[in-house]
Amino acid sequence: MGRKWNNIKEKKASKDANTSRIYAKFGLEIYVAARKGEPDPESNRALRVVLERAKTYNVPKAIIDRAIEKAKGSSDEIYEELRYEGFGPNGSMVIVDALTNNVNRTASAVRAAFSKNGGNMGVNGSVAYMFDATAVIGVSGRSLDEIMELMLEADVDVRDIVEEDEDVLVYAEPDQFHAVQEALRASGIEEFSVAELTMLAQNFVELPEDAQKQFDKIIDTLEDLEDVQQVYHNVEYAD
User: In this protein, which residues make up the domain named TACO1/YebC-like second and third (predicted)?
Assistant: First the structure.
């Protein structure tokens, strides 16, 4: 399982050089999460998760504070959380999560990203059943055995713990996200190389070169859309 995650992480990292775009997406996500409840991560679990994710992307404190302050104000901006599902070449599958204040605009843009690049939109549920909602927490500088022992001692329910490159990755149910982090922090770990709530494909596919290029166009176009927050897929990139 870990092999798949770091493969995805490395591909994402190559695209995330546009930090201003990433920061803008996090700013919106933090604002929406803060508006759901109290703008305080101690009492707002959704906000806490987003802030933990933001740390691993080095989102500046000024952007975080500005989004939270905006949520405290009287703004009447309403954003909807939407999920789209679609298909690329050769059995590739894609899930798109968006935050939008204009559903028609977003639906049209997502549909065009698929259709203009050789993919097609699916109906709700046509793809998601092949993915599992998963918490992924990664740490560096600790051994696999040490992390396993910490999880056992804390009685945290995890799916898997794997070692890859310089990271030890803990996979768990989404509702165990904070429990895993708290168990790790109790041992003195404060920095996480990965802190994600993701949709992880149950099975991955490798694409031939021509199909891979076509698929990359779909993903790049989707990720460039202002309203799109996350894109998940089942394609494994070759080393």
Answer: 79-235
For residue 94, tell me if it sits in a domain: no
CA R_g for the chain: 18
- For residue 158, tell me if it sits in a domain: yes
Judge whether 215 lies within some domain.
no
- Which DSSP category does 136 fall into? E
What's at 163, amino acid-wise?
Answer: E
End-to-end CA distance of the chain: 16
Strand arrangement of the beta sheet that strand 194-201 belongs to: 160-164, 167-172, 131-140, 194-201
CB 65 within 8 A of CB 94: no
Q: What is the pLDDT at residue 11?
A: 47
Residue 2: per-residue pLDDT? 44
Closest CA to 53 of 22, 76, 83: 22
> How many other β-carbons are positioned within 10 Å of the β-carbon of residue 182?
11
Bridge partners (DSSP) of residue 71 are: none
Mean pLDDT to the nearest integer, 143-147: 94
Question: Distance (Å, rounded) from C-alpha 73 to C-alpha 55?
Answer: 24
Model pTM score: 0.90
Number of domains in the chain: 1
Residue 148 lies in a domain: yes
Provide the domain limits for residue 196.
130-201
Count other C-beta atoms under 10 Å from residue 184's C-beta: 23
What is the token pair recorded at 183?
């168990």
> For position 9, what pLDDT does the model report?
54
DSSP 236: P
* Number of continuous H segments (helices) and E segments (strands) in the chain: 8, 8
Measured CA to CA, the distance from residue 123 to residue 86 in angstroms comes to 8
